[in-house]
Amino acid sequence: MTDFSEEQRNEREALESIYPDSFTVLSENPTSFTITVTSEAGENDETVQATLKFTYGEKYPDETPLYEIFSQENLEDNDVTDILSLLEQQAEENLGMVMIFTLVSAVQEKLNEIVDQIKTRREEEKKQKEREAEEAEKLCFHGTPVTIENFLSWKAKFDAELLEIKRKKMKEEEQSGKNKLSGKQLFETDHNLDTSDIQFLEEAGNSVEVDESLFQEMDDLELDDEEDDPDYNPVDLDSD
């Protein structure tokens, strides 16, 4: 008859010696403990971590232990799902043998793979950003190729903007015309306008200077005298 408790005790002692810094007993009956597994350091010393919780059943190792991810760091939801699937697979394959070390080792390798995937994913993201930056730079220098479609789209937008500018200008001119007063309105608004010229002349007094050279004496002007014209005939005027 298999002594399950003996096998469980021996495995527990072995695990405590293998994982002295990460092995923690949670309870004695049933035997329950955790083992924290950390990946190798990735880029920028980044790591992922999972604390696995195991609980022995009465017939372990002829039955699989209870297991769960007690806590984790830097793992995505899909990573947690993958780890649980891995534990299930390994437990079924090692049924009948003490298996905790095997399960923990499998999770350790999986965590290392996840770190490598994170590194690869970040490298791809970096390359993608570089490609996008290059494409954006090309567009800045070469512009967008002109096609019938984008030209018509640009022209429709341009015409709409031009029409809006004209409307605003017409509205401003119309508003300006409404605010401009007619001559009659000016006089009605300021009654001093009709006496402003007289007031100016009165204030000027004798200081107004006239340039007499602009005028000539009547005697100096050569005016045609109709009577001196030999062809002049007053009768013709009467006949008119």
From TrEMBL:
It comes from the Eukaryota. Residues 209-240 are annotated as: Disordered. Residues 108-175 form a coiled coil. Gene3D superfamilies: 6.20.400.10, Ubiquitin Conjugating Enzyme (3.10.110.10). This is RWD domain-containing protein 1. Residues 10-114 form the RWD domain. GO terms for cellular component: cytoplasm.
